[in-house]
């Protein structure tokens, strides 16, 4: 326990966590002509992937093979080796498809070692599937968090932020309250003071859930920005546009790219924002349904991971690509294939992409906003190296046909290259750590620049006059994620993020049993998520301007930023519809009666 920790009357431990500071927010706040301060609350929420957590293990001929949907097959190998006292070379972990993950499968699961040990004792395959109720009580979850945000403004611009956050934490867990990682980068406010703390209580350790820190923090921050805009009599769109920047205020480094204002302008045009009337409660349908329009913006760090790649092209038409990466619905294999087929003349029907398999290549943990961008860049590097090797092999020969056919003509059974990649300015020694089960995520604060992805959401809500039920008939989301490598899968990521935000804002909360502290609604009958009837039209578009610094493809992270700021947009639209500001999620019927 930290020496500065406090224990309240309930026995909860309030433990300060390292915050962030830029400029002198206290002084700037004292001299600001206008300010707004309030507290916003985000509830505990649980992942609910359709497929359960499961582990299958097989011990044969002195080797252990584990099949599990996981984002961390490499570190899992190391963890199993330590727990079972085995050499890492005797363990293989295979996760060809993670399934729904969203952060839940980014940690070592409680059941994995038990299943592996059982397989070793029995000498036969063992499989365990965790029921949904146990998933609620054993796996990670999004913790309940509180956000006290104070904003100061002068001459129509924000000049200071004081922001204190805390969240629930287990007695010994280390999931950090990093709620300032994106808000400090949003609007170029030079004077920012962010503090945070853990509140240690008797619960299991919380963990990563899609858009882990910006989801609750940008609900709070974008709600506060909206409240300040109204206090100043400013249009919420025009107010945000006034805060363009090219500098990371926390470190003084240039931003690799920032097209948030482009997102806002494009979104406003596509949404028809000019038809909005400003006064809350001023828009309605003929039947009395209240209509509200709101905006919310978001940012998320764009990070990279190291990779070791083997690419082998066979004369018989096959291609085998093995690299780090975990397919969890983001379309990673599709993105890799698109790069390889664009850069090399290969047979697309016989392309094998091996990821999530420690027997094929060293595996780095995969997260939503570092996975695809990293593997796409690695694939481009491997393709360039393969072209160089082919040019050297075929030098001085005039050969027709694709790469497979040319190998056949020179009677070469295959051509293989190995390639590696690290992030901009990253120490190449991280590759040695990767070979031995380590990892080295890099960014968003690179040696010479800072890199974030950005998004702007425009939301229309309808509030029924008698039931007060909130509907979301349409959303426009515009994203700055650098170059879009795979438009179809990129669009799918944003659609999923917006639907998740609708659920997080209007439906989802894990209820606590006040008697015993356990979770009450631990099934899909009682844990309410959006269904098709809750989802209207979602219009997704991309700025699609390549980032010049992050990697060779110009891509930035997308999977996490897709959700950032959307809850704030929904809450802001509800205020515009009703004149009632709700500062906690989920926003329910009783909040609007």
Automatic annotation (TrEMBL):
Aldehyde oxidase/xanthine dehydrogenase first molybdopterin binding domain segment(s): 20-242
Gene3D superfamilies in the record: Aldehyde oxidase/xanthine dehydrogenase, molybdopterin binding domain
Pfam families per the UniProt record, alphabetical: MoCoBD_1 (PF02738), MoCoBD_2 (PF20256)
Organism domain of life: Bacteria
Ranges where the Aldehyde oxidase/xanthine dehydrogenase second molybdopterin binding domain occurs: 267-535
Any one GO molecular-function label of the UniProt entry: oxidoreductase activity
InterPro entries named among the record's database cross-references: AldOxase/xan_DH_MoCoBD1, AldOxase/xan_DH_MoCoBD2, AldOxase/xan_DH_Mopterin-bd_sf, N-heterocyclic_Hydroxylase
Protein name: Aromatic aldehyde oxidoreductase molybdenum-binding subunit
């Amino acid at each position: 326990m930290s020496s500065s920790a406090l224990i309240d009357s309930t026995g909860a431990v309030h433990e300060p966590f390292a915050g962030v500071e830029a400029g002198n927010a206290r002084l700037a706040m004292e001299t600001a002509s206008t300010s707004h301060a309030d507290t916003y609350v985000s509830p505990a929420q649980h992942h609910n992937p359709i497929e359960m957590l499961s582990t299958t293990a097989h011990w044969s001929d002195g080797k252990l093979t584990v099949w599990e949907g996981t984002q961390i097959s490499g570190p899992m190998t190391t963890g199993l080796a330590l727990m079972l006292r085995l050499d890492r070379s005797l363990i293989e972990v295979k996760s060809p498809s993670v399934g729904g993950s969203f952060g839940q499968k980014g940690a070592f699961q409680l059941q994995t070692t038990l299943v592996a040990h059982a397989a070793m004792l029995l000498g036969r395959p063992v499989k365990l599937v965790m029921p949904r109720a146990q998933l609620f009580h054993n796996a990670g979850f999004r913790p309940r968090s509180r956000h006290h945000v104070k904003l100061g403004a002068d001459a129509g611009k924000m000049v200071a932020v004081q922001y204190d956050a805390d969240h629930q934490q287990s007695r010994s867990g280390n999931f950090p309250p990093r709620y300032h990682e994106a808000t400090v980068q949003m609007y170029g406010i030079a004077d920012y003071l962010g503090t945070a703390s853990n509140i240690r209580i008797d619960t299991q350790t919380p963990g990563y859930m899609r858009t882990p820190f910006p989801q609750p923090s940008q609900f709070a921050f974008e709600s506060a920005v909206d409240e300040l805009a109204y206090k100043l009599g400013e249009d919420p769109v025009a107010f945000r546009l006034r805060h363009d920047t090219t500098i990371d205020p926390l470190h003084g480094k240039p931003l690799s790219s920032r097209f948030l204002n482009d997102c806002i302008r494009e979104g406003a045009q596509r949404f028809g924002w000019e038809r909005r009337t400003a006064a809350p409660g001023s828009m309605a349908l003929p039947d009395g349904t209240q209509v509200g329009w709101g905006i919310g913006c978001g940012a998320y760090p764009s990070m990279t991971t190291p990779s070791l790649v083997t690419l082998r092209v066979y004369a018989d038409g096959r291609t085998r690509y093995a690299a780090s990466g975990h397919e969890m619905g983001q379309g990673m294999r599709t993105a890799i294939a698109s790069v390889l087929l664009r850069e090399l003349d290969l047979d697309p029907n016989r392309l094998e992409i091996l990821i999530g398999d420690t027997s094929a290549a060293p595996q780095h943990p995969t997260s939503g906003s570092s996975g695809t961008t990293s593997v796409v860049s690695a694939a481009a590097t491997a393709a360039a190296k393969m072209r160089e090797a082919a040019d050297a092999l075929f030098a001085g020969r005039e050969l027709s046909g694709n790469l497979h056919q040319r190998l056949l003509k020179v009677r070469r059974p295959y051509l293989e290259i190995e390639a590696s990649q690290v992030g901009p300015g990253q120490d190449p020694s991280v590759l040695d750590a990767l070979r031995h089960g380590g990892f080295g995520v890099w960014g968003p604060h690179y040696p010479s620049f800072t890199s974030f992805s950005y998004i702007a959401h425009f939301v229309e809500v309808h509030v029924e006059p008698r039931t007060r039920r909130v509907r979301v008939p349409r959303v426009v989301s515009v994203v700055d994620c650098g170059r879009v490598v795979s438009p179809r899968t990129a669009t799918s990521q944003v659609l999923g993020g917006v639907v998740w935000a609708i659920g997080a804002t209007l439906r989802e909360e894990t209820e606590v049993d006040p008697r015993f502290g356990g979770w009450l609604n631990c099934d899909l009958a009682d844990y309410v998520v959006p269904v098709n009837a809750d989802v209207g039209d979602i219009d997704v578009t991309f700025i699609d301007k390549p980032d010049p610094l992050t990697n060779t493809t110009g891509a930035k992270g997308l999977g996490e930023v897709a959700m950032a700021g959307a809850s704030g947009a929904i809450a802001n639209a509800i205020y515009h519809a009703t004149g009632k500001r709700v500062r906690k999620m989920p926003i329910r019927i009783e909040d609007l009666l």
